[in-house]
UniProtKB/TrEMBL annotation:
This is Ribulose-phosphate 3-epimerase. Signal peptide: none annotated. It is an enzyme of class 5 (isomerase). GO terms for biological process: carbohydrate metabolic process; pentose catabolic process; pentose-phosphate shunt, non-oxidative branch.
Length: 299
């Protein structure tokens, strides 16, 4: 294009188009484009120079476009959440134990039954133990997902396996030999899970990630149902999802405590593949409706 009276207007148009390209592509360095445009404005008195600058800016733009395609971080805010099927594991801790069989039938549409065992030592509450697990096993076809909140769980792993557990999850804080406990669970032919309290650094489970079938993020301090979800848990789920994807992408990433239809989707988007819920399932109008509400929230 020859340099003349119309060159500044044309440069503005080109600059505008560049800016549009930048914003459409969500390139982070928009400020670079803005600076180029200000440059054009300042140099309008020298149209030939402006034209050269416009060409340079366009080249730069193409370079940024290339970079943004190569760099997944540039697209992160626009990417859809990975599509993972999310399992539901209602906790029978919140059910009516005088009707255990019916309460288990009510959650037949769930994926697992979550069984919270508390010893009054590792956590400040006693729930139930082997006979209830064995009864639940007889009353339901759902896989029994046993969460042991007990000191030195290695003492009872065989008993829980024989009573009907399909997966057994142990706390890193509850034993000196967490890796041995994981090995023992697998030797018993069961899925092995590890978990950690909200105040325990995630690094405590990192060495185990390649060897487990399940990682459970406690999103309340264990011991009681009906507590409020701890918001920082979502970021912990996201971090663990990243770590698991590197070494063991098939492992389940479970969240337990204060899960409701209001936060279920957020947790799934952060990378959870299994949500435990007690009061949100059994607390209102029965287990079947509670499971359905969570399914709807995740749809
Ligand atoms: C807490 C238990 C949870 C609890 C979940 O120590 O591990 O499984 O029952 O109950 P809600 O969903 O009511 O927080
Ligand atoms: Zn639990």
């Amino acid at each position: 294009m020859p340099c003349g009276a119309t060159a500044p207007a044309e440069n503005w148009r080109r600059a505008g188009r560049l800016l549009e390209q930048f914003s459409e592509l969500r390139v982070r360095r928009k400020s670079t484009a803005t600076r180029s445009i200000l440059c054009f404005a300042a140099l309008q008195v020298r149209p030939a120079l402006c034209f050269v600058l416009a060409l340079l800016a366009q080249k730069l733009c193409h370079l940024f476009v290339k970079c943004s395609r190569l760099d997944p971080v540039s697209h992160s805010s626009a990417s859809p959440a990975p599509a993972r099927a999310v399992k539901l594991a209602p906790s029978i801790l919140s059910c009516d134990f005088s009707r255990l069989g019916e309460e288990l039938q009510a959650i037949a549409g769930a994926d697992w039954a979550h069984v919270d065992v508390m010893d009054g030592a590792f956590v400040p509450n006693i729930s139930f133990g082997l006979p209830i697990l064995a009864a639940a096993r007889r009353a339901s076809n759902l896989p029994m997902d046993v969460h042991l909140m007990i000191e030195r769980p290695e003492r009872y792993l065989r008993d829980f396996a024989e009573a009907g557990a399909d997966s057994i999850t142990v706390h890193v804080e509850a034993t000196q030999h967490i890796h041995r406990a994981v090995q023992q669970i697998k030797e018993l032919g069961k899925k092995a899970g590890v978990t950690l309290n909200p105040g325990t650094p995630l690094e405590a489970v990192r060495p185990l990630l390649a060897d487990v079938d399940l990682v459970l993020v406690m999103s309340v301090n264990p011991g009681f149902g009906g507590q409020k979800f701890i918001p920082a848990s979502t970021e912990r789920v996201r971090t663990l999802r990243g770590w698991l994807d590197e070494v063991n992408p098939q492992a389940e990433l479970q969240v337990d405590g204060g899960v409701t239809p209001a936060n279920a989707r957020l947790l799934a988007e952060a990378g959870a593949t299994c949500l435990v819920a007690g009061s949100a399932v059994y607390g209102a109008d029965g287990g079947a409706a509670g499971v359905q509400r969570l399914r709807d929230a995740l749809a």
